[in-house]
UniProtKB/TrEMBL annotation:
It catalyses: (8S)-8-amino-7-oxononanoate + S-adenosyl-L-methionine = S-adenosyl-4-methylsulfanyl-2-oxobutanoate + (7R,8S)-7,8-diammoniononanoate. Pfam families: Aminotran_3. Coiled coil: none annotated. Its main location: cytoplasm. The keyword Thylakoid does not apply. Its EC number is 2.6.1.62. The lineage of its organism: Bacteria, Pseudomonadati, Bacteroidota, Flavobacteriia, Flavobacteriales. The gene is bioA. This is Adenosylmethionine-8-amino-7-oxononanoate aminotransferase. It is found in: Cytoplasm. The modification N6-(pyridoxal phosphate)lysine is found at residue 265. It is an enzyme of class 2 (transferase). It comes from Flavobacterium agrisoli.
Length: 423
């Protein structure tokens, strides 16, 4: 059997309707921003493989750090034991995170990072003897596919089969330009009419919704409203973290500070699944007690896996190198130039840029659904041309590895321009 036939025989892929989907492409090799399939056809990975890979595929620096750790201490349980790699990741992150973030909790993926944050928000009030159970989230939010994360997510595509089985979540509109007051008032209203524990949000950019962007000042106001009312705030930086927005974290643009942050995706440079939830000292203190019932009874077998920690340390080191920061700036400048070029095009409805993120909305007469016909046409066109882009409905976005070359990025732009003409 070919690998395609074997895949069909044995595998079940994420977000895939196997009856109608094209067979998956078998990738055999990656280097820098490029991937190659089994026929040696090259692809530019213009979305950094679901936003995890900023420093390039098969990165030697991270690989060497992983190998060294694998042959020293590959894993040890984190209950009752600790190790240098975990301590170093924590120390390093606390140095670069917003300065109120003081405690680091490890898990395995973005969804579990969110799951932990929501559980801590709920148990924080439980520990204080206060009953607060409602979580506030944005419309069209995406926070992951485990149950609490899914409850907080507002994209019905992912959640409709499970309606009625969720924790209480109330939604407010995103404060996009012109809708700020509506969003502020909705938040005040929700807080007044519910007993709210926390507000979870994707800071500045809603990734899965199609790179929907809003301003730092608006987010600051929302956080302040929460803090005035004793509602905990959770910045889900699983997508935006580690340089995507042009700064280490999207929250670096925002004056008000969150109570918790969720990190994953680029944390290990796309090598080993790992996630982190970070907390203020105040939150930690609410669990610190002679009463064992007040402890956080949450953990995963692979929590703080030393090999993952070594990958995270190497990734953070790469991120902080001046050459990498220059790459982020270079990609941003190229995006801004491309934006100037395409924004007047009659078929382009809107464009937006933040850091290495570029998004463009194509004019469309019908309401485009998430996995609708325009999306399929665009996706297939890009793949045929050797560029990996996953449009969301009629929104095409680029989120490349920071080390993508100017020539590769130019090719992505050219093919997007061709796609606009084609649809
Ligand atoms: C991808 C994502 C998640 C979920 O992460 P997984 O690792 O896929 O579980 C959560 N929040 C945001 C903002 C994300 O982009």
């Amino acid at each position: 059997m070919t690998s395609t036939e074997k895949d069909r025989q044995y595998l079940w892929h994420p977000y895939t309707q196997h009856k109608t989907a094209q067979p998956p492409i078998t990738i055999i090799r990656g280097e820098g921003a490029m991937l190659w399939d089994e026929n040696n056809k090259p692809y530019i990975d213009a979305i950094a493989s679901w936003w995890v890979n900023p420093f390039g595929h098969s990165n030697r620096f991270i690989a060497d750090a992983i190998y060294k750790q694998l042959t020293t201490l590959e894993h040890v349980l984190f209950g009752g034991f600790t190790h240098e790699p975990a301590i170093e990741v924590a120390e390093k992150l606390i140095e670069i995170l917003p300065n109120n973030q003081q405690k680091i909790f490890f898990s395995d993926n973005g969804s579990t990072a969110v799951e932990v944050a929501i559980k801590v928000a709920l148990q924080y009030f439980f520990n204080k003897g206060e009953k607060r159970t409602t979580i506030i989230a944005f419309e069209d939010a995406f926070h992951g596919d485990t149950f609490a994360a899914m409850a907080a997510s507002g994209i019905s595509f992912y959640t409709q089969a499970f309606q009625g089985m969720f924790i209480d979540v109330v939604r407010i509109p995103v404060p996009i330009k012109g809708k700020e007051l509506e969003s502020f008032n909705a938040l005040k209203n929700v807080i007044e009419n519910n007993i709210c524990a926390g507000f979870i949000f994707e800071p500045l950019v809603q990734g899965a919704a199609g790179m929907v962007m809003y301003a730092p000042d608006a987010l600051s106001t929302l956080i302040e409203i929460c803090h005035k009312n004793g509602v905990l705030t959770i910045a889900d930086e699983v997508m935006t973290g580690f340089g995507k927005t042009g700064k280490n974290f999207a929250m670096d643009y925002v004056k008000a500070q969150p109570d918790m942050m969720c990190l994953s995706k680029a944390l290990t440079g796309g090598t080993i699944p790992m996630a982190i939830t970070t907390f203020t000292q105040t939150l930690f203190d609410a669990f610190y007690s002679d009463d064992i019932n007040k402890a956080l009874f949450h953990g995963h077998t692979f929590t703080a896996n030393p090999t993952g920690c070594a990958a995270a340390l190497a990734s953070i080191e790469l991120l902080q190198k001046p050459e990498m920061q220059a790459n982020i700036e270079r990609v941003n400048q190229m995006h801004l130039q491309f934006q100037q070029k395409v924004k007047q095009h009659p078929k382009v409805k809107t464009t937006r840029v933040l850091g290495v993120i570029f998004a463009l909305e194509i004019q469309s007469n019908s309401a485009e659904s998430y996995y609708g016909s325009m999306r399929t046409k665009l996706y297939d066109f890009f793949i045929e041309k050797g560029v990996i882009l996953r449009p969301v409905g009629n929104i095409v976005y680029i989120l490349p590895p920071y080390i993508i070359t100017n020539e590769q990025l130019q090719e992505v732009y050219t093919i997007i321009e061709e796609a606009i003409e084609m649809v």
